Structures
1.
Amino acid sequence: MGEKILMKGNEAIGEAAIRAGCRHFFGYPITPQNELPEYMARRLPEVGGVMVQAESEIAAINMVYGAAGAGARVMTSSSSPGISLKQEGLSYIAAAELPCVIVNMVRGGPGLGGIQPAQSDYWQATKGGGHGDYRMLVLAPASLQEMVDLVRDAFALADKYRNPVMILGDGMLGQMMEPVMFKDEEVRELPAKEWATTGTRNHPGRNVINSLYLQPDRLEAHNEHLQRKYAQMAANEVRYESVNVEDADLVVAAFGSTARIVRSAMEAARQEGLRVGLIRPITLWPFPEEAFQQAAKTAKAFLSVEMSAGQMVEDVRLAVNGQKPVYFYGRTGGMIPTPEAVLEKFKKILGGEA
Amino acid sequence: MAKVFARPKALADVVTHYCPGCTHGIIHRLVAEAIDELDILDRTIGVAPVGCAVLAYDYFECDMQEAAHGRAPAVCTGIKRVLPDAIVFSYQGDGDLASIGAAEIVHAAARGENITVIFVNNGIYGMTGGQMAPTTLIGHKTTTSPYGRDAAVQGYPLRIAEMLATLEGPAYIERVSVHTPQHVNRAKRAIKRAFANQVEGKGFSIVEVLSTCPTNWGMTPVEALQRVADEMIPYYPLGVFKDIDAEGEDK
Ligand SMILES: Cc1ncc(C[n+]2csc(CCOP(=O)(O)OP(=O)(O)O)c2C)c(N)n1
Ligand code: SF4
């Protein structure tokens, strides 16, 4: 405890998961997240757990369904194309209210795309991805330390709400090395899950994990129950970081790796006397709408910087609700915005040329 | 007077939604009897498919999970890896297991997951109204092979038991039928064996049960049973395709 270790992002997630009590991991190889299943294959047997390399991401997410239904803390990870294959399973998992943690180390898309970092799975993560009305908590770390802390929280949140939680990283966060500290005690006792299918000898009555409701009124009642739960998440779980927003003329929205770049650009701008601030959503869903609504009272303009063709910018626009102009700057395909280009964009907006 | 025929404890006391004369009901009963006789009900976790047996979670008195279409073997894998002392089984139709879930069943078998699979082969998609299944026989008319399955157009039906028998992983593979009382008895022994193997930690066991769908075959229940003997068994021969206990003996 208490000591800093230099780790690669993907491996740090694995270690954080193990310390959070995760003993089951189901994965399938895809770049740029391979170090995570590899780490789990190495480490889990040492702590009495198991990593199963599934035949596909579809099988992996359904193994997660079974394992979560059996009461375990369980994780799977992938990158964009593989996460697409998991969408069916995620919809079932959300519907059956199974706690689990899914990691997406996003790479450039669409299609097979590339293997370099991107944030173009924002919509897929925050707006559903699979079929039906469901929500996942989506956590977006910007550093390895934050990633480690969020993995810990992700398991707790998944159990608290009986809901899937996604860690949305990107190839950069997965591959970079930074010192991390595992601050919390290792989880040894898992919370009781009296609903889990562990055999009727272990609980009163009979437990069923299911998402089928053939009668429309019962399905609607189930949906209303889910919606009440999502409303609670939205009310209680919003997280964001806000820097220099109070006096900012331009408030920039950015998450994950991109927020680090925007931060450098913001510091450079401040040196030149430009009043730029940053709101960094840590939960992408629920989105920190209020932070933007507040900022809209004082800021002159907003800018969303993303490694996508413009996805989170839609949520910024919804929050700002036409009160101030909302601009966008993004790179795609694994191209990373440079602080210089971002600074340039600030200047254009503040100079009225954007 | 001694009761000679009672509802197995593992079978819920409810009216099922199966069509009259459908052999899904017999197969449910055999599964429940095997669970009773091995006295494993309170540590059994069943996985229901998508297909006519989707509501199986209401029919067995053990804990149950309802899987997405074809994914039951992966769901079973997840459960069994978490609860190695539990008895985990899937109950799947041929569309579920042999078509959309072909990868899941092959790899669960190849991994030798210590689970029990009950594979109900009725050569048709029952639940969705009688479309062609991967197991539909050549010449058989279904709503999506209205001129009869033609190998040149729709390819050939899959023999799952034979295919899985080529793998190292499985411990036990048998194909049975339930179209006569004698066959029901044989099926009962096979299903019980497939559960007993799991109790003994022997590994992946699958019983393929030839079943009827009078509704979508357009036959009376009796005609449907006859069709199993006349048309299905010639293409899907009954018997043991793999048995690690018999290995080393003359086969
Ligand atoms: C992903 C997906 N695709 C298609 C369906 C529709 N569907 C429901 S049951 C079924 C086929 C079931 O046939 P089978 O497995 O042979 O079982 P049976 O009904 O004959 O017992 C299909 C295609 C579905 N529920 N999910
Ligand atoms: S549709 Fe066919 S398989 Fe389904 S319950 Fe009816 S007879 Fe049985």
2.
Amino acid sequence: MIGILLAKFKQFIRSPWTFVIFTGMSIVMALIFGGSTGPTNLKIPTYTEQGVDNSIKDILEVEETMEFSYMTEEEVRERVSTGKAELGVILKEDSYQLVVGVDSFNAGLVEQAIASAYMERNLEQQILEVSGLTSTTEQEAFIEDMKEELSSPVFDLDSKSFRGEGAFVYNSNLQHVFGFSLFFVIYTIAYNVLPILIEKRGGIWDRMILSPIKKWEMYVANLIYSFVTGYIQVVVTFLVFRYLVGIDFNGRFVETLLLLVPYVFAIVSLAILITAIAKTVQQFNAILPIVAVSMAMIGGAYWPIEIVYSEILLMIAKIDPLYYGMQMLTGATVYGHPFQEIFVPLSVLVLMGVVMTGIGIHLMERRHV
Amino acid sequence: MIELVNLTKEYKNVKAVKNLSMFIERGEIVGLLGPNGAGKSTAISMLSSLVEPTSGDVRFENSSIIKNPSKFRKIVGIVPQEIALYEDLTAEENLHFFGRIYHLRGAKLKQKVEEVLEQIGLSDRRKDVVKKFSGGMKRRLNIGVAMLHDPEMIIMDEPTVGIDPQSRNYILETVKRLNEERNMTVLYTSHYMEEVEFLCDRIYIMDKGDLIASGTKEEIKKILSSENTIAIKADRFNKEFLDALQNHPSVNRITIGEREVLIIVPRAVNMFSEVIKIAEEYGIELVSVDNKAPTLEDVFLHLTGRALRD
Ligand SMILES: Nc1ncnc2c1ncn2[C@@H]1O[C@H](COP(=O)(O)OP(=O)(O)OP(=O)(O)O)[C@@H](O)[C@H]1O
Ligand SMILES: [Mg+2]
């Protein structure tokens, strides 16, 4: 068995292209989609005149969909006139001015935000005047207290911006890292299981059968090899996003790496099943993308499963290993679920893996030799 | 040594092998000849316990290979019809891999790999990946892999398909040498009759799943017909001589060349003395009178009405 593994890894090093291409694809696709479809911030060049107090800036800072960057007045005007920015803002002591370019869709939105920031500031000042507190530290402490009180109000007023996210939590970055990793690793794994078919047709398998090596060693060696290469691919992808792109896996990076184990196992077994069903490499090449792409669409790799409402699709998703993979990973990170809740998709994956490996090997053995 | 008893293999819509019986003795080179689709590979797969026959049995040293294949597997080496090698590995790495799966290790493995590389003439190409080999070199390595564990018997399925004449001769010589030096038993499959004729002591001919002839070369050729072809050579012939031959009651057909005349006569007639007598009579100085041997190709043609190769 060690001999088979050695030969496999030697070949892997000679031509690692499948692996490299699909790892690269999952990284690139996650980067592209992660960057463009998520709620992006509106960058607003801003100039503050003398005497504008910092509480306005603080209030604006909290604004999630807008990012105010501070610079000189000339720079602000230049950015807008050259079209680098959609609009700019000049903050004055008691009023403000919008510098608006040719077509700005968001002018109203920004104006609203700034206006309410001034109003909030004025409100604070009035309250402070009434309170009669004089020292700055006392004033600040008072404002803090007040804000705290306000944030847990007696009446809960829920407000949503038009960019709001609806009822489910959606983390565009993690969604795409997970989605594309889980999708592209199907190909790497499948193409590492495919040699079984090629070796069977090409006579290498026959040679091994005639040798003293055991059948189970042949299968186990192939399983281990496909598992390891697949696992390395997802780990590499995750490492890139964790440490190079700097995506925080909500503090559960190690957990996600561990949760990949049952998923990769299930995909290896799926690949075995496909290999067992396909009679030729051509058939395999035809079946694989159909299976992989529909699994990705149904399982929520391209878009979050939460936006799917079709009962049928949701039912089909229940037999899709990728669905459970996404459930585990988003469950652990985005939702911060405890282990008990992740345990269900995890055991489904393990079960699927065992069943598909069993059927796959049985079919292979029945079809040939 | 090994015996096939009424082997039959049926696939969904073809009977690949029908009721095949044959035997191979220790130290023999036996040929299995047949055109494409004759069932040669299927027969070999059943013989080497890789495919289970629909019916019939393969017996090795008084036990069934089908029920208990391990004893036979240890002593047999298989050269598959396909190139069963790892294309991305070098010749040496391939030999190491296949040696390892036969539990060869360390110095023993190294020595066997050396020896095989030497035998197949690839010592100087050992570090090249198989992908870059010529067809002939791949074929040689394909054979080499089957010899790593010192098999007593080697089964070769068309080991010379699609390669240059030099490599082909090299392979044929290697097979012959293995047989002579090590008393290796060989089952050699081919659809080139001249290879089988060169190598084999005994021959089986298959067509469309049926065994259509078997025996030694001579025995098989005797099947051919009741006729003999005799080649008469001389520096010059004269009309009287040729007329006499043509009118001879035993001569069925005559083909006249400048220095050679071919006559076809019934096998039963001894034509040699007749020819010499006629030549003396008309003053012809003969160079030679030969029985022109029929080829296996002729036999196949005779038995099936088709040429061996299309
Ligand atoms: N696994 C299989 N399933 C179905 N039919 C098969 C299978 N293997 C062989 N056959 C059929 O059995 C017949 C004999 O095939 P086989 O490969 O034994 O011929 P062969 O004599 O080796 O021919 P070739 O010279 O082309 O190698 C063919 O008609 C072939 O199509
Ligand atoms: Mg064949």
